[in-house]
Amino acid sequence: MGIRIIAVGKIKTDFYKSACDEYMKRLSRYCKVEVIEIRSHSGNRYEENIKRESKDMLKYVRRDRVNVLLDERGKMLSSKDFANMLESWMSKGKGEIVFFIGGTDGVDAKVKERLDIRIALSRMTFTHEMARVILLEQIYRAFRIKNGEPYHH
Predict the structure, then answer these.
(1) How far is residue 105's CA from residue 96's CA, in Å, rounded to a whole number?
(2) Nearest to 27 by CA among 153, 135, 152, 100
(3) Is residue 20 part of a domain?
(4) Using CA atoms, how far apart are residues 138 and 147, in angstroms rounded to an integer?
(5) pTM of this structure
(6) At 7, is the secondary structure helix, strand, or coil?
(7) CATH number of the domain encompassing residue 113
C-alpha cells in the first residue's frame, strides 16, 4: 500500500521543505510515500488557471485507488477519525491512497466530482506549502495511532 500526494505547485520555502523531508523520512518506516508536483498556473485568468491545473490533476485519478481531495469545505475529521479512515481505505485492498492538493485558486468542479471523498484539514485556509506539511504530519500521526505508538494528544 502506498500513499501519493498530487500537489499543485512546488514548495519554495526552506523550512517547509525541511518539514516535508522530515515527515517523509518518518513515514518511510510505515509505507511508501510519493509526492508529485503539478505545474502551477498564475496570472489573472483564474478560471483558465483552475481548468489547466485541474486537467493535470485528473490524469492521476484512477478507480483502483482511493482519491482524496483536500478541501476546506470537506469533511472534518479528528486525528483518530482520520487514522480509522486511513486504516479502512488500506484494508479495502486498493493499490494506493492518493491525496490531491489544489492550486491557489482551487479546483474545477470536475475534480470534486471524480474524487471519492473531500476532507478538510481545518475550516481555516492554509498556504499550499503548509497544507502539504500538515497532511504529511497527519498521515504520520495516523500510523502512530493505529500502531499503538505514542503521539502528542
Answers:
(1) 27
(2) 135
(3) yes
(4) 14
(5) 0.93
(6) strand
(7) 3.40.1280.10
Element (H, E) at 91: helix 79-91
The answer to whether residue 152 is domain-embedded is: no
What is the 3-state composition of the chain as percent helix, strand, coil, each rounded to the nearest 5? 40, 25, 35
Going 105 to 68 to 124 to 135, the CA torsion angle's sign is: negative
Residue 153 lies in a domain: no
Please count the structural domains in the chain: 1
Tell me if 56 is assigned to some domain: yes
Q: State the burial class of residue 26 (Cβ atoms within 10 Å of its Cβ: 0-12, 13-18, 19+).
A: middle
- pLDDT tens string, the chain, 153 residues long: the values are 799 999 999 999 999 999 999 999 999 999 999 999 999 887 778 788 888 988 999 999 998 899 999 998 899 999 999 999 999 988 877 679 999 999 888 888 889 989 999 999 998 888 889 999 999 999 999 999 999 998 765
